[in-house]
Design goal:
30% helix, 17 strands, Dihydrodipicolinate Reductase, domain 2, globular, nine-stranded mixed beta sheet, six-stranded parallel beta sheet, alpha/beta, 2 domains, Rossmann fold
Length: 366
C-alpha cells in the first residue's frame, strides 16, 4: 500500500479523499496541506488517520510515496517539481502544467530522479469509455475515420464560489475541460500528429453570479471559444469545440467516433459511466451497448490508484505524464494555430494507455 499526501484541499479534493481512503486498497491518504490551513484541518477531522500539515513537512516525510497535487493550475509545476526533487512521485490535477516548457522540464526531472509523474483526467479508465475502447479494438466500427467532440457552456461564474482562475492563463474552456475530451480521444484513437484551429475571446469581462463574490468583475485573459481540427497519426480526423460563451445548445457533452462500419456514441468524458450507443452500417436505429466494464460510479483517483499499483509492480501506469503532456501540447497547438493562421506539427507523441482488465472487482486494478 502506498501512502498519499494531498496538497490543495479545494472543491475537487473531497472525492479524492473519499475514494483514496475508502475505495482503493492500493493506497491511503496520510497527510494533507493547503494554504488555507482550516480547509486541511477540516479533512483531518473527517479522516482521523490523516494529518493536516505543511508542504514542507510532506516533502520531508520519508513515509509518503506519492503527492496528489490538487493546487490551482498556475501552481501545478511549482509544487510538482518540489515533490519530484524530494524523490517522490507526483500526480497532478489537469492540466499537467501551464506551459510546454514546464511539462518537459517536469518529465525530464522525474526521469533523472527515478519517480513517476501522473495526471488527471482518469475518466477514460471508467466503464463507459473502456467499453468504447473494447468496441474499437474488436473492430465493431471498422476503421476509425473521424471524430467530433463538444463542450459548450456559459462558463462557471454562475455557480463556482471562486471562478476568477477559469479566465486566467492555464485555464479557459480548452485547458479546463479539454483534457477530458482530448485524453479520451487519444485513448481511443491514438496520438495526434497535426493540429489547426481558431479561437477568440468573446466577452472581455465576466460578472460573478455566485456567492460569496456575486457582482465582482473578472477580466478575461484567455480564449473562451475555440475549435480545433486534429489529424491523428492513425489517419482519423477529429474536431473539438470548447466554449464558455454559449447560452444554450442542443449539442450533447459527448464524443462521436465515426468508423467505416459504424458510428460510436461515447459518453460524457467528464464521467465514468455511459450511455454508450452504436449505429451500424445500413441500420436506422441506434443500439444501446451494455457497459460491461468496471468503474461506472465517480471513481476519481482511479488513475492515482493505478499509478500506486504501477510503483508496486514496476509496470507502466495509464494516466501517465507522457499522455498528459501530449494533451497539453495539443491544446497549445490549437491556440498557436489560431494565432499563426497555420497547421502545427506536433513534436510530442505518446503510447495509447493499456485497457483495464475486464471484470474487475471494486477497488481492483490488475
Amino acid at each position: 500500500m502506498k501512502r498519499i499526501a494531498i496538497v490543495g484541499c479545494g472543491k475537487i479534493s473531497s472525492i479524492y479523499f473519499k475514494n483514496s481512503c475508502e475505495l482503493f486498497p492500493q493506497m491511503t491518504v496520510t497527510a494533507c496541506a493547503d494554504l488555507d490551513q482550516e480547509r486541511a484541518a477540516a479533512y483531518a477531522r473527517d479522516y482521523p488517520h490523516v494529518t493536516a500539515t505543511s508542504l514542507e513537512a510532506i516533502l520531508a516525510d520519508p513515509a509518503i510515496d506519492i503527492v496528489l497535487n490538487l493546487t490551482p493550475p498556475a501552481s501545478h509545476y511549482a509544487v510538482a517539481r518540489q515533490v519530484v526533487a524530494a524523490g517522490k512521485s507526483v500526480y497532478n490535477e489537469k492540466p499537467l502544467t501551464i506551459t510546454r516548457e514546464e511539462g518537459q522540464a517536469l518529465l525530464a526531472q522525474a526521469r533523472q530522479t527515478g519517480v513517476l509523474v501522473g495526471s488527471a483526467p482518469d475518466t477514460f479508465l471508467g466503464g463507459g469509455i473502456q467499453t468504447c475502447l473494447q468496441l474499437i479494438q474488436e473492430g465493431a466500427i471498422g476503421e476509425p475515420v473521424g471524430a467530433q467532440a463538444f463542450m459548450l457552456s456559459r462558463g462557471p461564474e454562475g455557480w463556482h464560489p471562486d471562478p476568477a482562475f477559469f479566465y486566467q492563463t492555464g485555464s479557459g474552456p480548452l485547458f479546463d475541460m479539454g483534457p477530458y475530451y482530448l485524453t479520451t480521444l487519444v485513448a481511443l484513437l491514438g496520438p495526434v500528429r497535426r493540429v489547426t484551429g481558431s479561437a477568440r475571446i468573446s466577452f472581455p469581462t465576466r460578472t460573478i453570479g455566485s456567492e460569496p463574490k456575486r457582482g465582482q468583475k473578472i477580466n478575461v485573459n484567455v480564449f473562451t471559444h475555440s475549435t480545433g481540427v486534429l489529424e491523428f497519426a492513425g489517419g482519423a480526423i477529429g474536431a473539438i469545440t470548447t466554449s464558455f460563451d454559449v447560452w444554450g445548445s442542443s449539442m450533447p457533452r459527448r464524443i462521436e467516433i465515426f468508423g467505416s462500419e459504424a458510428t460510436l456514441s461515447v459518453p460524457d468524458p467528464n464521467t465514468f459511466r455511459g450511455p454508450v450507443g452504436i449505429l451500424r452500417a445500413g441500420r436506422k436505429e441506434w443500439e444501446d451497448v451494455d457497459i460491461a466494464r468496471s468503474y461506472t460510479d465517480n471513481s476519481r483517483g482511479l488513475g492515482l490508484a493505478d499509478m500506486a499499483a504501477a510503483l508496486e509492480k514496476g509496470r507502466p501506469h495509464r494516466a501517465n505524464g507522457e499522455l498528459a503532456f501530449h494533451v497539453l501540447d495539443i491544446m497549445h497547438a490549437i491556440h498557436d494555430a489560431s494565432a499563426q493562421g497555420r497547421h502545427i506539427e506536433l513534436a510530442s507523441t505518446c503510447d495509447r494507455p493499456a485497457a483495464l482488465p475486464a471484470n474487475l472487482e471494486p477497488g481492483e486494478i490488475d
